[in-house]
Amino acid sequence: MTEKHNQEPLIKIRGLSFARDERWIFDNIDMDMQRGKITAIMGPSGTGKTTLLRLIGGQLIPDAGTIEVDGLQVPNLGINALYSLRKRMGMLFQSGALLTDLNVFENVAFPLREHTKLPESIIHNLVLMKLQAVGLRGARELMPSELSGGMARRVALARALVFDPMMIMYDEPFTGQDPISMGVLVQLIKSINQALGLTSIIVSHDVPETASIADYIYVISNGKIVGSGTPDELNTSKSAWLQQFLNGESDGPVPFHYPAPDYVQDLLGRAK
Amino acid sequence: MIDQFQQLGHAVLKILANLGRGHIFFLRIVANIPGILLRPYLIIAQIYSVGVLSLSLIIVSGLFVGMVLGLQGYNTLVNFGATESLGAVVSLSLVRELGPVLTSLLFAGRAGSALTAEIGLMKATEQLSGMEMMAVNPLKRVVTPRLLGGMISMPLLAAIFSAVGIFGGYLVVVQLLGVDAGAYWSQMQDKTDLIDDILNGVIKSIVFGIVVTWIAVFQGYDCTPTSEGVSRATTRTVVHSSLATLALDFVLTALMFNQV
Ligand SMILES: Nc1ncnc2c1ncn2[C@@H]1O[C@H](COP(=O)(O)OP(=O)(O)O)[C@@H](O)[C@H]1O
Ligand SMILES: [Mg+2]
Q1: What's the ipTM?
Q2: In 3-state terms, what secondary structure has residue B205?
Q3: What is the pLDDT of residues A54-94, one digit of tens each?
Q4: In chain B, which end has fewer C-beta atoms inside a 10 angstrom radius, N or C?
Q5: From the CB of A205, is ligand 1 less than 6 Å away?
């Protein structure tokens, strides 16, 4: 890689706006995701984190702005160019999105079988190498329904790695995990990022886990970037909203109560 | 008043939009057929799960329908001393009408609803999105083989239904009620025409197969990706494809068996 290559961010988002049902999910935001680094996108549920990953993957088209991945304008790509870009992008869906009628081995082999005519022996070796990397070589015969949530995500990770992509997008990788599989996933994401020199994007609202491995964090809320920086910079930020979000306090700038009429009046039945 | 007009307009527009999406969806599948024909094992797997797994239902139903036809026909024809023509009555009813129509209705309930639920669940669990992100077109990989599997299975199932039904009629008419076996079979062969009856029946079952499977895969692909969404889509598949079968049957019958 050239020096310039190293400095240019892999993903450049400028002036991105996206609306759903006349509500702005993103309102003119800019983001950069550096090569070889772990960039985290954090924000409350329903702010559009998954939507952002779908925009980067070209599954959704923005209403305004540009999304550049490795020098390519994603929204303008034709279907063939988009598909060949996607082969270089891995994406880990929240649920793992494993194909339920195929076992673990065939799930990991799926992209190879769809896109290549490799002989069976090579597919076998490639799949076992990726499964070994996520510690599930012994689980190759299991069906997705027999896997725990954490294992399903690791299989999905092996599948995302099978084409040696330049980047991986993780959608809520830690949500709903027990502490051990959470720890396993945190370590796995970090070590894969380092060992393979991948660019990683983690979308999450699990603050401590994400902050422990992220190089840079964007916090989004209500369609805007409300904070960005390294984990240390964010921790020392003065924004009350950010502090409430990062420390998980129940009340603050984001009120605990959904807007409601006055409590006493409501109990007395006088409120409208 | 204005409100009601608005609602009516809204409902009509929604139906038109749905129809439009359904047709575009169909064209996009058709465009993918050549590519998927190169991978026949994908289609064979679907013929198995859509067709072979419906076989027992079709055979049992066909047997009973044929038996009922024989019984009812006997009760009517015995007054005229015309029980020898029962072979023709049973076979014509089955080949022209009941075979294709009942198979299509059963197929919608058994295979159509399963197709919708399967594709809907794949959508709800992000499997379809996951494929797209792996640069695999789910329309081509998932939907097209299913449509082809249904299209191929349905005429075969209808043929089996009719054949088993004729045998069921034989059991009742000949074995139970004592009509002459030779009369039953020769009347059946004599009165059933290859073009007018069998070919028309086969055309019907091909049309029903396409329509029912198309509705099923479209409802699955188009559903709201939640558990209620999938269950509503499954219901819609059965309702829409049953109605479509019966309505199309009238149209096709009018076109095919018009004596005027
Ligand atoms: N297919 C869709 N159609 C309409 N609205 C949607 C759809 N998917 C998501 N949304 C809405 O977009 C917003 C952002 O969703 P999402 O990106 O899934 O949020 P997050 O991943 O941050 O929880 C939510 O308010 C959600 O209701
Ligand atoms: Mg999400």
Answers
A1: 0.82
A2: helix
A3: 999 999 999 999 999 998 999 999 889 999 999 999 899 88
A4: C
A5: no
